[in-house]
């Protein structure tokens, strides 16, 4: 059974923690979004097909997913700071190496390394939040984090579009290395240790394996994490395909693309804060369900738009609904999934991150399967991922929530496995 021990008292400098943890949560958006406007130029410069160029996105996503499986358990065993600082330093070096990649194959390998290193910031930021908060406070803290981390997908594509007009894609990776320096300083100087020695895990690989097995058997954990990850896959389908769809098919300039991309990111920010307010009165599971429904509505509208060859306004509108809904999904899915594991926060955070990024890693290459001539794969992949997310939620999460509600009312619940609350 997962531990039910209480998290430590909240940090004395709450705003500083929000800023630092928010910055550490920007690895995904910064690593993926900043160079998206330069992706067509990158493909031309390295003589690569659109699908091959999009593999550099897939490689980074795979690295971000797998790296969390390493960084999370290490942070449960050795504390949060040491694995974090090591990962930040390696991310900086990998970003510099990407700027000098001589071929698409080398770039893909380096992007994998960049993702592996950057995963430490993502997984440890969530683990630190779980060290300090629980329940509705954890949901609210995650929404505050997204005020900072959510700025990255707003700023990155806009900045990337401007950078694409004054420098090559190699220069963009140099800028990413500069962000690596900033994040290293933030992590090393602005984050104290939040996991006391007496709460750290021991036992080596065997204990890590048993921890993952416990999480994998928890139907509620898997259901919330997987539904959030599949909804995220619909967004990653958009991230990997929007560059070619909006610029090559719909004729937007890199600057126009960056502003459309930024508007969708603003939608995520707004939805996140609306979700935080809703979480004060409604259960996180209910808010998650609303987010998944909106995500599915937008994804189905996107699929209809590309299949029926409707115009740019329909495309932009459906993308806005689909992507903005992720702001309701991610904080609530993360808080629900991690709620029962205060003493395995790093391990729980790593498996949560794995499920989120693996969905994106699968979606990214499928979007480019038709090359630059069709937007249909992006719409179909996004709709399929979103539909699966809603089905997982309905079949794995809703029955457990109903069983808990009946149990609280003093009735005999259905025969459902009872996850930790």
Task: Give structural notes.
This protein is an all-alpha fold and 421 residues long. The protein has a single domain (14-193, 203-405), classed as MFS general substrate transporter like domains (Growth Hormone, Chain: A, Up-down Bundle). 78% of the residues lie in helices and 0% in strands. The chain is built from 17 helices and no strands. Helix 8 runs antiparallel to helix 12.
Strand and helix map with partners:
Layout: H1 14-24, H2 27-33, H3 39-45, H4 50-78, H5 81-98, H6 104-132, H7 135-149, H8 151-164, H9 169-190, H10 204-217, H11 219-249, H12 254-279, H13 284-307, H14 312-324, H15 326-338, H16 345-367, H17 376-408
Helix pairs in contact: 1-7, 1-9, 3-4, 4-5, 4-6, 4-16, 5-6, 5-9, 6-16, 7-12, 7-15, 8-12, 11-12, 11-13, 11-15, 11-16, 11-17, 12-14, 12-15, 13-14, 13-15, 13-17, 16-17
Structure at a glance:
With 421 residues, this protein is mostly helical.
Largest sheet: number of strands, sense, barrel closure: none
- Oligomer designation: single chain
CATH topology: Growth Hormone, Chain: A
CATH class: Mainly Alpha
Mean pLDDT: 83
> How many strand segments?
0
- Estimate the helix proportion, in percent: over 70%
CATH architecture heading: Up-down Bundle
Low confidence ranges: 1-9, 413-421
Domain count: 1
Order of helices and strands: HHHHHHHHHHHHHHHHH
Main structural class: mainly alpha
N/C terminus separation: 11 Å
**Proportion of strand residues:** under 5%
